[in-house]
Design a protein that fits this description.
Two copies of one chain form a homodimer.
Chain A lengths: L19 H8 L3 H8 L7 H14 L5 H8 L4 E6 L5 H16 L3 E6 L4 H13 L4 E4 L7 H10 L3 E4 L8 E5 L1 H14 L5 E5 L5 H16 L9 E2 L5 H12 L7 E5 L4 H10 L9 E5 L3 H5 L5 E4 L2 H17 L8 E4 L2 E3 L12
Parallel strand pairs in A: 1-2, 1-3, 3-4, 4-5, 5-11, 6-7, 6-8, 8-9, 9-10
Antiparallel strand pairs in A: 10-12
Chain A binds a DNA duplex (16 and 16 nucleotides) through helix 2 and helix 4.
DNA sequence: TTGTACGCGTTATCAA
DNA sequence: TTGATAACGCGTACAA
């Protein structure tokens, strides 16, 4: 009996969701009527409305987003491209954006560039071919011609986060310049004058803004800037370790360090620890972006901070406006203010230095 | 002259990507031929192949993933559902998964449940209606009937991360039971006997596994378990603050605390700090999951750890196999070993306690 | 080897 | 108010 093969090679596909056609058939109405009920068009008789709704309930019908995209050109999907989802700051940003966008019925397509242009380009292309309705991104560079050309080509509403590409995109920018000024004011008031700043390459806004703030502050004080105290090599934790180690090895090191990058604190703290120095007695420290580590380090680390999740939400709202075609056609530039929070890591400058 | 209106209400849509039809037309071949070239079917003459490729290059043609999904049923998209992208552990996991999946041409649809069942259900439904090819998820509960029914209904290859729903899904589990044993062995060797464990509700695997490990260890030692030392109220940082504060207020508090949740360290450290206690002199501490904070706290915090990014990669590979229909049909259960790393936060138990 | 035609699930248009 | 039908872009079976 075993060769009867009672299962005639069942296609073993998923039970294929119900289609609008089946709904119409079960409801005994035409396709178009079912569609009208689903999309809440006004001109449907109460009777047919009820029949269709019953059929929908019975079949568990859910519209197929893919087919809707096919028809409308929209996908109710938004791409979000970040450097590294592992950074609490970026994760908080994604979280905020996700929160408001999902409440509006959008789903997020996530891309992590890990600093790779290739990954960035790939993500944007595959997102575009999935017909995303909007894009939020933190590019690894602002001067990448290929990326810009690509963006022009796909022509999708886009919000830049902490990046500025003039005359081109809406941008949501953290007031890093202000943050640096706030940090410097406090450090100056504590007597510090030799203050190093560690940040990344100036082909992105955050580095530029911080440098601008740094130079402007010294200029306002009528003091020359010691260029050796400015490092624009890295935003990473590993980089911060290297840079901090190097600086601390100088014969006359700075008395304070400002970290101009959201992932740098761990590396810098490690370097200071490795050298056996005390904070703030031997060196004062200010970080960019608040974190558990900053709050709970010993001593707690002074920070320039802002609300990441809130920024993510704001970015999402900006994008929603753009997608609806609301608001001015001009690219907008929203600046998010920073708060400087003095904690134990910024102390009085030792008198002998 | 102003009423001439030279712009006749331009549709102002995106420049509408080139279609395969345009490629065929420009190449002077039929639609099918263009398709065959694109999909590398063998039977195409060299001449036509060249013509089509030229046309593709000239038009910058890229296949429309939505239309492909429509046709194939596949979307080359994978859903990933986590509780909170802000947790470094979960973010690391997402990062690893994203890395291998994007290398395989898949794009990630990200959902954050924030512990809300509604968000979970919404995400799974909208992802399904986007025809995701696979799903990786960390559900907020394992005993949620609605979620299970939904999963059955959509019937998509699924990998559970750190969750186990017997007879149902592939699961990738961290060996928390082992981790707790490793922690207890070390604490015992330091003389601790009154050891509290703080973890979440036991309707998810990590809590259950940790409790199992805890009880098994005491049983193996022939010691009774003091039930008061077991708390299964929360996985969160805020919760850890509350629980730790409560415990430390006891007349005879435990001499060590094991944190059974990846986000709990910050809250617990805050509570200990707020009480003015020293680690490890007054209380020893072991955390779950490594982090910058654990490494750089003072003293550094002992942890049970594992490689999040690697786990994410493994999950992605498991899913890829499932999506290809490879491997056994049985649900698989992969256990990822943990490592116990003793750092300064676990010290010798004071003799008078 | 190449070309044609169909259908995937929707929505919108048009005629009834 | 309702029903039939075209179209979105693609891949493929089938015919040539």
């Amino acid at each position: 009996m075993k060769s009867l093969s009672p299962t005639p090679k069942a296609p073993r596909k998923q039970p294929s969701r119900a289609t609008i056609r089946e709904v119409a058939a079960l409801g005994g109405v035409a396709l178009g009527t079912a569609s009208r009920v689903i999309n809440k068009h006004p001109n449907v008789s109460a009777e047919n409305m009820a029949k269709v709704q019953a059929a929908i309930a019975k079949l568990g019908y859910k519209p197929d987003t893919v087919a809707q995209s096919m028809r409308n050109g929209e996908s109710r999907t938004v791409g979000i491209l970040v450097r590294n989802i592992t950074s609490p700051v970026l994760a908080g940003f994604v979280r905020g954006a996700q929160e408001v966008l999902s409440d509006q019925g959008y789903t997020l397509l996530l891309g992590c560039s890990e600093e790779s242009r290739e990954r960035e380009v790939n993500f944007i292309m595959s997102a575009a071919s999935r017909r995303i309705d909007g894009l939020i991104m933190i590019t690894s560079a602002e001067d990448d011609a290929e990326l810009l050309a690509l963006r022009k080509e796909i022509n999708i509403p886009t919000i830049l986060f902490d990046r500025e590409i003039p005359e081109s995109f809406d941008a949501l920018l953290i007031a890093h310049e202000q943050g640096i000024k706030q940090s410097l004011e406090h450090l100056f008031s504590l007597g510090h004058r030799r203050i190093a700043i560690l940040t990344g390459k100036d082909n992105v806004y955050p580095a530029r803004a911080r440098l601008r703030g740094y130079r402007a502050f010294f200029e306002a004080q009528g003091l020359p800037v010691d260029e050796r105290l400015i490092s624009t090599n890295t935003f990473t934790s590993e980089g911060a370790f290297v840079e901090t180690s190097a600086i601390l090895g100088w014969t006359q090191p700075p008395t304070a360090i400002i970290l101009g990058g959201i992932s740098m604190l761990a590396g810098s703290l490690s370097a200071i620890k490795a050298r056996g120095l005390r904070i703030p007695e031997d060196i004062s420290l200010v970080a960019s972006g608040d974190s558990d580590l900053a709050m709970l380090s010993t001593p707690p680390t002074s920070v320039v901070r802002w609300n990441n999740t809130e920024v993510g939400r704001t970015g999402a709202f900006l994008l929603l406006e753009r997608m609806k075609g609301e608001g001015s056609l001009e690219p907008r530039r929203i600046i998010v203010p920073t708060e400087y929070l003095a904690r134990g890591s910024s102390g009085r400058c030792p008198p002998d230095r």
